[in-house]
Amino acid sequence: MNFRAPSTTPASVVLGAGLMGRLLAVQLAHAGHRVELFDAAGPQAEGAAARVAAAMLAPLAESAVTEASVVQMGLHAMARWPALISKLDEPVFFQQQGSLVLWHRQDTAEAARFTHQLGAMRGSVPQLPAPQALDAAGVARLEPSLAARFAQGLYLPGEGQLDNRQLLAALLQHLEKLQARLHWHSPRDPRDFTPGQPGQPDWVFDCRGLGARGQWPDVRGVRGEIIRVHAPEVALTRPTRLIHPRYPLYIVPKQDHLFVIGATEIESDDLSPPSVRSTLELLSAAYTVHSGFAEARILEIATQCRPALPDNLPAIRQLGPRVLQINGLFRHGFMIAPALLDVVMEWVGHGESGLAASFGLDIEPACGAVS
Predict the structure, then answer these.
(1) CA–CA distance, 100 with 115 (Å, rounded to integer)
(2) Does residue 117 sit within a domain?
(3) Assessment of whether the complete model's pTM goes beyond 0.90
(4) Which of 167, 218, 247, 351 is the one with CA 20 to 30 A from 88?
(5) Within a domain: residue 112?
């Protein structure tokens, strides 16, 4: 296939049409690149981790379980999401009204550890907002329907969420409008291209997640399970987390009484359906938060594996002078993708990235890569 036209317009190939691939393809097209996007699945992102996600934007909550660099990326991304969404033609639900962390009395000790971890990270990332302790009246003020169930909790200001499937669809529609060439059910890897050679693209970007394991063996899958329900009797206005010794549950309200219910990750790349036991435990935990979930209608029970590296941190590396791999977004994909996007675009434009340094990212050649 011939990528070069009789002009100086750069041509770029993006491999993988999940969250990172679609964001990057749109940004490259806006920067004047002629973009080709290849994906092993179809346009509905059937194989992407981003489709099976709650899409929480929660740098403060995640600071209890990740490194300061990821938290800093999350803060950067939180400020970038509104601008990125505003460029799209289709509406994407976006909310930034903070989030709640709740616990039952028997889990007070675990809640104290969580609160301590939040405070410790604020020492490393002082721009993080301070969590606000809530009593029963505070919980009732923010979420009246939970007033009788929880006497204590935390409010995490500034956190947000978006609708992941609306976003993926809006990015696809925008790529079509920008006349990007989209190749579905067409798996490719970086070895299929020789950037800079006649008839070849100027840049290749590998955003395939688990699909990149052939070139990046350290990438592993971490299983996630979600349940999507329609619950007209539940009134929650912001993402709510339940501290629990086995199932640290999250409930994320979308539009029209749609809720995404999920738990923490499972160290497995198994993509089989959830077990009866895990489904019952997840729904039972949701019921303890709000009894209205008893009459909810289950729309979907889904699993997917998130791409992670051994340290659970994201990475960008070079397979060649104009071949970049972006991977390892783990459980933080929506929270950090705009930060990684901006790093890549700086690198493309200037051959270096000040943002990368500020996030502690080293863009280095992969072992055995051609420099």
Answers:
(1) 13
(2) yes
(3) yes
(4) 351
(5) yes
